[in-house]
Design the sequence.
């Protein structure tokens, strides 16, 4: 196995973009729940679409490379962490130690 910084960078960028789409889609879904007649169906369909796109992007970019998959996952989790911190700040929850 050779070290390929371009593949790792592509993995990280894919993870970041996948995270933005996944958690942005979740945010949009939750905002619409009160406006639809079947909120359970909306949640299930939204999850299937978001998860499917994320898994497909990770598989397409990483192939069989564990380091590239780890870079994807790192980018995805970084977006999640930023979103959690922003949500807590918006609720006046402050910072946890």
Sequence:
């Amino acid at each position: 196995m050779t070290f390929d910084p371009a593949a790792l960078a592509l993995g990280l960028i894919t993870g970041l973009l996948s995270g933005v789409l996944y958690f942005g889609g979740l945010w949009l879904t939750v905002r619409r729940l009160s406006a639809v007649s079947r909120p359970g169906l909306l949640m299930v369909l939204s999850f299937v679409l978001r998860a499917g796109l994320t898994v497909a992007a990770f598989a397409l970019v990483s192939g069989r490379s564990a380091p590239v998959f780890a870079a994807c996952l790192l980018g995805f989790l970084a977006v999640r962490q930023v979103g959690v911190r922003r949500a807590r700040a918006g609720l006046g929850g402050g910072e946890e130690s």
About this structure: The first helix runs from residue 5 to 32. The chain has one domain: 9-90. The mean pLDDT is 93.
